[in-house]
Design brief:
Elements (H helix, E strand, L loop, with lengths): L4 H4 L14 E5 L25 H13 L4 E5 L9 H10 L3 E6 L12 H7 L3 E5 L5 H8 L3 H14 L10 E5 L10 H16 L5 E4 L6 H9 L3 H10 L14 E4 L4 E3 L2 H6 L14 E2 H4 L16 H4 L13
The protein binds iron/sulfur cluster (2 copies).
Length: 323
């Protein structure tokens, strides 16, 4: 795999400072039942990194102390972490909104047959990857049979009330197949709605379009194919300063499976730690050191991959910024 950080280190991206923190994004580990081509965390079935129960307790301590109101759980497939259900149930008991970034196929993994019911019981918001409404495109990007499994999972979630009942929000996530920007979010949502409803009777609340980040597996593939510089030029050329106000690092911090903290999931994958004063742990900040600490106004570690967040309509965990 090609190292990406040296390619984006010399950056022209504008400075960003953190606003009010609303969301704690927690990566429960890199184990996943899939191994998608575009995966920016290099997740897969062979990965063994999983957040321990001790670190989950630190996450809960952080939530108890405030100020965030949303816990955004990601991975890998976060549901494969044995501590997933305890974290969800206890966070909900604290009154925290919980988002599960779900790959859908995990709902059919042996031993996880009751996962959909668990998520509905705790009113967990589901953000599910479905990079196209066409079978061929999904299977090419995410593996053979993934589209069919995803459709079955969505039907099951719909049957539980996801996509229609209040409090059971279901969002789908689109990302381009290759080094191009996502199409306009609202128009694509209409296409998804039409196809999924007419062909499968599937309902969902919203479509989120995400740009592919030129890092990790996707970035390395671009380097191998000689497309990295061209994609970076595309992102830089499409930069819109108006998106800077709403890049996700302004309101979110990201925690890795060991409890170390970053400005976002992408910086986590690049090994760029959150910068705060009085850091311990060899320059990295641990969540346990940040409990009760106000991070408003602190500087974000930006590099040229950040153009992936501000290009065109913009891109974040919550979809397009300018939609
Ligand atoms: S399902 Fe998500 S976490 Fe798993 S390999 Fe695919 S992109 Fe990565
Ligand atoms: S990549 Fe991360 S640090 Fe850079 S703008 Fe996007 S959210 Fe902020």
């Amino acid at each position: 795999m090609h190292a990406i950080l040296p390619l984006i280190q010399k950056s022209t991206f504008p400075a960003v400072r953190r606003g009010t923190l609303t969301t704690l994004q927690v990566n429960l580990g890199y184990k996943c039942n899939q191994a998608c081509l575009h995966c920016h965390v290099n997740a897969g079935p062979a990965r063994t990194e999983l957040m321990s129960s001790e670190t989950v307790e630190v996450v809960l301590d952080y939530l108890r102390a405030g100020p965030v109101s949303t816990l955004d759980i990601t991975g890998g497939a976060p549901e494969l972490n044995p501590n997933f259900r305890a974290l969800v149930a206890r966070s909900r008991a604290l009154g925290v909104k919980v988002i599960d970034r779900c790959n859908l196929t995990v709902l059919e993994e042996p031993g996880y047959e009751d996962l959909a019911e668990f998520l509905a019981l705790h009113a967990v918001e589901i953000v599910a990857s479905l990079p196209c409404y066409l079978e061929e495109n999904v299977d090419r990007q995410r593996g053979a049979g993934v589209f069919g499994t995803s459709i079955r999972a969505l039907k099951r979630l719909n049957a539980l009330g996801y996509g229609s009942a209040p409090g059971l929000r279901l969002s789908l996530v689109y990302n381009p197949q290759g080094p191009s920007l996502p199409p306009p979010q609202a128009a694509l949502e209409g296409d998804y709605r039409k196809h999924l409803s007419e062909r499968f009777g599937i309902e969902f609340d919203q479509l989120l379009t995400l740009a592919n980040m030129p890092i990790q597996r996707f970035g390395s593939t671009l380097v191998s194919k000689g497309q990295f510089d061209g994609y970076m030029d595309l992102l830089r050329g499409a930069h819109r300063a108006s998106n800077l106000e709403s890049v996700m690092c302004r309101n979110l911090i990201s925690v890795d499976w060991e409890g170390y903290v970053y400005d976002c999931d992408f910086n986590q994958m690049l090994g760029l730690p959150l910068k705060v004063r009085q850091r311990k742990n060899g320059g990295r900040s641990h969540l346990s050191d940040l409990i009760g600490r106000d991070l408003t106004g602190s500087a974000v570690q930006v590099r040229d991959h950040c153009y992936g967040c501000t290009a065109g309509q913009g891109s974040s965990c919550g979809g397009a910024l300018a939609a």
